[in-house]
Amino acid sequence: MKKYLRTYGSLLPVFVFFSMLLVPSLSSGQASMEPLFEEGNTAYNEGDYSKAISLYEQTLKLGQHSAALYYNLGNAYYRLNKVAESIYYFEKAKLLNPKDKDLQINSAFARNMTIDAIEFLPESQLTQLKNRLFNSFSFYTWSIMTVVLLWIFVGLFLGYLLFKSTQLKRSFFFSSLVVLVLFSGSFLITFSIDQQKKNTQFGILFSNQIDIWSEPNQQGELLFTLHEGTKVQLLDNLEEWQKIRIANGSEGWIKNASLRKLSDDLK
């Protein structure tokens, strides 16, 4: 696996422009987290992966949840041959930065360590187009774009109301219409992504081996067996039973499974 450590660039410039009052507190928090993160990177480069994990997890406890941090945690756990932990953190990093090529490569290396070889269901062209559009930016970036477009629309519309020149009013009016269309599209995408995240929960199995049943009881049919590191979609639960779906579309129930939701603690 390629060893690659970095801190991703900030996506905040426009947001900060509209949130100047928050800058002192944000800067103070970032300053307290950065030394731990850098110490973790140093430990990783020295081959002390356990120490690096400890420092990265301390950073998480301080409230920093970034693609770079999850990426580095995934790398460190991979070096210790901890399959489930490695995949878990790579998947969390992909939620925040799905287009990163190094992350995709390292995540693929980690998945190759799993026992279960699960083929993905083919996607329709419409689904592929929608996913490319939704994943062209992170949810956070879509949110910022939506807010910025709203402010631009308000500014242009105020210009239309305040200026007396017919030519200027026409320019402001049509510009505001264009921005309104862009805002509407950005808002719909942001809302759709938010609803999809709320209604679609995924987790990583940490159980070494677990049976999947056709019903939430062991009187049903034993369908198949899964192993640690497998990504599952969480569909339903009933007491100690959890209904899941895997990438090939197969569904079933698991009992008392050790799994961690990818949405847990994600900021």
Question: What can you tell me about this protein's structure?
Answer:
The protein is α+β, with helices and mostly antiparallel strands. It has 3 domains: 31-111, Serine Threonine Protein Phosphatase 5, Tetratricopeptide repeat (Alpha Horseshoe); 125-199; 201-261, Roll (SH3 type barrels), CATH 2.30.30. Helix content is 55%, strand content 14%. It contains 9 helices and 7 strands. It has helices at residues 13-17, 23-45, 49-61, 67-79, 83-96, 101-111, 125-134, 139-162, 166-199; strands at residues 201-205, 209-213, 222-227, 231-238, 241-245, 251-255, 259-261. It has a 5-stranded antiparallel beta sheet with strand order 6-5-4-1-7. Strands 2-3 form a two-stranded antiparallel ribbon. A hairpin with a 2-residue loop joins strand 4 (231-238) and strand 5 (241-245). Helix 2 runs antiparallel to helix 3 (49-61), helix 4 packs antiparallel against helix 5 and helix 5 packs antiparallel against helix 6. The protein is globular. Residues 1-31 have low confidence and may be disordered.
